[in-house]
Design goal:
Layout lengths: L2 H56 L7 H28 L3 H30 L2 H5 L1 H20 L22 H14 L9 H22 L15
Helix pairs in contact: 1-2, 1-3, 1-6, 1-7, 3-5
């Protein structure tokens, strides 16, 4: 075998190894992005569930207060956004068997966490006087959460499943900001500047911090709960 031929084989071997490394790095990066989308979306939903608990507690004697409807709608908007995220993830990764299986695995774990939170939250509400006294007003959102839990468990995500409740107020929620936020955070994730949270313990801890933030905001803006003029409260 000539030296020229041997050199060509070596170059081809090195080229193949480089292609393999590039492919593997691409797979790792895409898996990281899938994991981030799944768990950040889950975190957002659970944060809002905990925030709603704070609102219901604060307005326990006034279940028709606009703040209750606003937090309900914020959850419904997040559920619709979640459906969109998972629908797109499924479409983008369905042709890659490894990524498709990875997405399914991440969803299964996220579903376990979501189920625990929704079921635990429902059980606590059933034992609460707030819920018992205002069961009719509370059931609507609880039913939607149960429906979403079923979609998640079956991994059957459809677009625009949930209708918002009537508030009589001008809508101020802009879904278009979310892709920009996600894109910025994905860049931070790929640059090693952001760590995704995937454990139930850490997700709950973050949700509890968000709940406390909402409690503090409520007492600052509604110290007498029902006597002050209604103001819009941001749960950001």
């Amino acid at each position: 075998m000539s030296k020229t031929h041997q050199s060509g084989i070596q170059r081809n071997g090195i080229g193949f190894q480089n292609q393999q490394q590039i492919y593997q790095q691409s797979q790792i990066q895409q898996q990281s992005e899938i994991r981030y989308y799944v768990y950040q979306d889950l975190q957002n939903i659970i944060n809002l569930i905990y925030s709603r608990n704070a609102v219901l507690e604060h307005f326990q004697n006034y279940p028709n207060h606009p703040m209750v409807t606003l937090i309900n709608n914020k959850i419904l908007l997040q559920l619709n956004l979640s459906n969109t995220i998972h629908f797109c993830l499924q479409q983008e990764n369905q042709k890659n068997r490894n990524l498709s299986n990875f997405l399914i695995q991440q969803r299964m774990n996220a579903n376990r966490i979501l189920k625990n939170v929704i079921d635990s939250n429902k059980q606590q509400k059933n034992q609460s006087l707030i819920y018992q006294n205002n069961q009719k007003q509370m059931n609507s959102l609880e039913n939607e959460l149960q429906k979403y839990k079923y979609f998640y468990e079956s991994q059957n995500f459809q677009l625009n499943q949930f209708q918002l409740q009537e508030t009589g107020l001008a809508a101020k929620f802009d879904e278009s900001v979310f892709p920009k936020i996600f894109d910025q955070q994905i860049n931070q994730l790929n640059n090693g500047q952001l760590q995704d949270i995937t454990s139930e313990k850490d997700i709950i801890k973050r949700a509890e911090l968000q709940q406390q933030k909402v409690i503090n905001n409520l007492y600052q803006r509604y110290p007498n709960k029902f006597t002050q003029k209604f103001q819009t409260l941001l749960f950001g």
